[in-house]
Amino acid sequence: MYKPRILVVEDDKAVRNLITTTLETQGYQYHTASTGGESIMEAISNQPDVVILDLGLPDMDGVDIIKKIRGWSNMPIIVVSARSEDRDKIDALDAGADDFLTKPFSVEELLARLRVTLRRLRYDVEKAGKSSSVFVNGELKIDYAAGCAYIADAEVHLTPIEYRLLCLLAKNVGKVLTHNYILKEVWGNALPGDTPSLRVFMATLRKKIEKNPSQPQYIQTHIGIGYRMLRIPE
To answer: Does residue 184 contact residue 190 with C-beta atoms inside 8 Å?
Structure first.
């Protein structure tokens, strides 16, 4: 049975041991690094399935490590950091991180975030192996070829902007997308100050695809940061 390989990048020995012990008890393989230089070499040589990355390393800022890895790989990166300001989270996510967990953290939450990331990774691999142009998540279905979306087989009538928003979230299911990233991808030349407009479009999209927009099951809000489409368990 294949055991996912996790690269743990953490310079605090106690935290590093906590994470690796937790991974070992859950049957994961792991490698470790305590500096930015080591982390990049480990990522290149061992090609891990997921990187768990601390931002505050002695030789290099974690955001720079994310940018370097993104220069040649899309391997998922989960940031685990003591930095709790929204700006730090946005910078890491904009650089290419897939998720952000703030210290102190519970090992249960770390494992849950890891499972979500691995499910997304498996989905991406399966999707790449198929020629299908249809996305399915719970009762939501998007037919990319036809340019149509459905909830429980009933077509949802979306505006062009709403459809582009939905497709962007679907193609990054499980990943937090920042406001700036969404604005750039959907509008192209939008400015950070356009975030209120994005919230309006997201609210109208939710009304059309969510059974209860006040308790959404598909589109999760990360206050001050952005949005994420949740993967609905089969």
So the answer is: yes
pLDDT band at 131 (very low <50, low <70, confident <90, very high): very low
Q: What are the tens digits of pLDDT across the range 58-101? A: 999 999 999 999 888 888 999 999 988 888 999 999 888 989 99
Q: Which residues have C-beta within 8 Å of that of residue 93, sequence separation ≥ 6? A: 100, 176, 177, 178, 181, 225, 226
Domains, the chain, with CATH or none: 5-126 (3.40.50.2300), 132-229 (1.10.10.10)
Q: Which helix (H) or strand (E) holds 220?
A: strand 219-222
State residue 127's pLDDT score.
Answer: 58
**For residue 79, which of 97, 103, 106 has the smallest C-alpha distance?**
97
Give the pair of three-digit tokens for residue 214: 């006040």
Neighbours of 112 (CB within 10 A): 12
